[in-house]
């Protein structure tokens, strides 16, 4: 695991975006893995700027989001379908037809999750997976105790995750209780991983992910198993690293 510690959150976004851009430059129809949440927003803003300035072309880029809430209509402003469209597809200029998000509104969620795995495989797999980490160590919505071999499936959100994400909803009770998420096994299949974390609230999770034992109690520690995992953090998120 390569750990890069930078002075500011802005630099974290810039360095992680440079990594993603280099993958796209090498392979114009690259398959990106997209995370939602606050952490990767600086990456998407940087990629959007590269596209605007003509330094990067993304017409052929394909993408698969990590996760989606269950129980929200797809057009709800906080569904990850909406969030990905608003924060990635539109500003970066990805072709909407090439951007995929798990279906959390499917009548048969198990079948939809299996179809998502097939779609990723049929695309040739993910070239570079962008990740954030939850304060409890989750990646995607793989909460503590998730199997390292897990694939896309329905999960129950941990109380801590629902509390952390309540900022996006009118009331904490409005945060969905379930989600569909790529599994840790799915994430580990990506050819490269780039995880970003900033701020003091992530310091414990970053410590457990980078220096803790490999443990399903910190799903992020699965990155220790990956040959090409890059963790980019600011000094606040790195505060507990030895
Ligand atoms: C969501 C996802 C989550 C977030 C994590 C951190 O797609 O993958 O694992 O990355 O909850 O969220 P933020 O960045 O909002 O602190």
From TrEMBL:
Protein name as catalogued: Glucosamine-6-phosphate deaminase
User: In the UniProt entry, which residues are flagged as the active site?
Assistant: 67, 136, 138, 143
Q: What does this protein do?
A: Catalyzes the reversible isomerization-deamination of glucosamine 6-phosphate (GlcN6P) to form fructose 6-phosphate (Fru6P) and ammonium ion.
Which pathway does it serve?
Answer: Amino-sugar metabolism; N-acetylneuraminate degradation; D-fructose 6-phosphate from N-acetylneuraminate: step 5/5
Q: Which residues form a coiled coil?
A: none
> Where is the secretion signal located?
none
Recite the UniProt keywords alphabetically.
Allosteric enzyme, Carbohydrate metabolism, Hydrolase
Q: EC number(s) for this protein?
A: 3.5.99.6
Positions of the record's site feature: Part of the allosteric site: 146, 153, 155-156
Q: Spell out the SUPFAM superfamilies in the cross-references.
A: NagB/RpiA/CoA transferase-like (SSF100950)
**What region holds the Glucosamine/galactosamine-6-phosphate isomerase domain?**
9-224
Task: Tell me what controls its activity.
Answer: Allosterically activated by N-acetylglucosamine 6-phosphate (GlcNAc6P).
Record has Hydrolase as a keyword: yes
Q: Which organism is it from?
A: Zhihengliuella salsuginis
Indicate the enzyme's highest-level EC class: hydrolase
InterPro entries on file: Glc/Gal-6P_isomerase (IPR006148), Glucosamine6P_isomerase (IPR004547), Glucosamine6P_isomerase_CS (IPR018321), NagB/RpiA_transferase-like (IPR037171)
Q: What protein family is recorded? A: Belongs to the glucosamine/galactosamine-6-phosphate isomerase family. NagB subfamily.
Q: Which reaction does it catalyse?
A: alpha-D-glucosamine 6-phosphate + H2O = beta-D-fructose 6-phosphate + NH4(+)
Organism lineage reads as: Bacteria, Bacillati, Actinomycetota, Actinomycetes, Micrococcales
